[in-house]
């Protein structure tokens, strides 16, 4: 039973430093972060990140980095989901943009085809007029 009082130091330690959203590679004391397994009664075998310095010196109630691995993963997952939402939104915007672009290109192509057609029709008309004249000339002769 005497174990109970010391077993909760991990979580109080994390509360002391405030919420750490993303796991940094290093503690603020420049020591690397290590992944450890909790041996406490309240969180047996629960994995956590800890400042290497605090871990080797078995510090308690300190200000060094402490974070449960699962909580860190959930935070990462939340961020990841938020990012996916952003990307989805961007894809949607891109899709409408490309649709508008396609429409624009289609209109341009159509206009070009129409112009070319008009030119060809004009040419054909001019040609037929020419041949009509020739015909007329032939007829007159
Ligand atoms: Zn540290």
Automatic annotation (TrEMBL):
InterPro entries reported in the protein's UniProt record: Znf_GRF
Gene Ontology molecular-function annotations: zinc ion binding
Region of interest (Disordered), ranges: 1-20
Biased amino acid composition, Low complexity: 1-14
Stretches assigned to coiled coil: 77-104
Cleavable signal peptide: none
Domain of life: Eukaryota
PROSITE patterns, per database record: ZF_GRF (PS51999)
Protein's UniProt keywords contain Ribosomal protein: no
Domain GRF-type: 27-72
UniProt keyword Transport, yes or no: no
This protein's name: GRF-type domain-containing protein
Organism annotation: Arabidopsis suecica
Lineage of origin: Eukaryota, Viridiplantae, Streptophyta, Embryophyta, Tracheophyta
């Amino acid at each position: 039973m005497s174990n109970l009082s010391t077993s909760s130091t991990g979580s109080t330690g994390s509360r002391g430093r405030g919420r750490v959203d993303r796991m940094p590679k290093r503690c603020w004391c420049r020591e690397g972060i290590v992944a450890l397994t909790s041996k406490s009664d309240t969180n047996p075998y629960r994995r956590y990140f800890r400042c290497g310095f605090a871990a080797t010196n078995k510090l308690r109630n300190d200000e060094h980095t402490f974070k449960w691995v699962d909580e860190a993963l959930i935070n990462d997952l939340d961020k990841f989901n938020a990012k996916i939402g952003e990307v989805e939104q961007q894809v949607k915007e891109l899709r409408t943009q490309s649709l508008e672009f396609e429409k624009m290109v289609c209109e341009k192509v159509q206009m070009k085809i129409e112009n070319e057609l008009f030119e060809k029709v004009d040419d054909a008309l001019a040609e037929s007029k020419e041949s009509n004249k020739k015909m007329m000339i032939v007829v007159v002769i």
